[in-house]
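Usage example:
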Amino acid sequence: MAEKPRLKLPTEAKKGEVIEIKTLLPHVMESGQRKDKDGNPIPRKIINKFACEFNGKPVFSVNLDPAIAANPYMQFNAKVEESGTFKFAWTDDDGTITTAEEKITVS
Amino acid sequence: MRQLSRRAALTLAAAGAALGFVGSGKRAPAAAKEAADQIAQFTGGKTAEKGKVSIELPEIAENGNTVPLSVTVDAPMAADNHVSEILVVADGNPNPGVATFHFSPLSGKAAASTRIRLAATQNIIAVAKTSKGEFFTNQKLVKVTIGGCGG
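Running the assembly step on the lines above writes:
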């Protein structure tokens, strides 16, 4: 039950500026280490990959391990030289991919 | 998981040996060795130079379930010379891996922040790899009051 990701980045920037991007996806990030009340291990279910690209070119990506806290938060930067679209993708252990995108105007 | 003092560990080991069941029972909290292995795999056996990498973490994390972490590498992000990856490992979690960040010249800066889980007081180690094949590393000790790997 992929929930809507939260994004925070500017909508406008100057050419060559390094902007800051913050993302958060609501997700339990079940580590696979916990047990339910009957003592059975709860199977691992995490977001294992996050990627950001701009106009089709890779900007930043992460391979996540179970040590990333619930609701994986990522803050990173991007250098923008032209107007375009940022695309974000989160890959779940079960193969589900949650995506989001945001446009930026560069002057 | 509680940390044993060296003396207590030795005493326990001796007691264990006497009874003939060394190594049974509780699993040791993960393996500084596993962490070192993972780093060696990342660097391909090369020794990472200490420095350039800075790790921001609270000195004391009251809640190990969500600990803010920032890593920054003081390096240029030019097309022909940039930080391409940063590996972050924790030497006291059930599994040492935390995350691997991948950068490109479009990243603008070799910096990332996230929130992590820590089972106990331990070292966080970051190793940065540049596009030229250089490695830089640093580590930081974080004290954890309540572990975050639930059980």
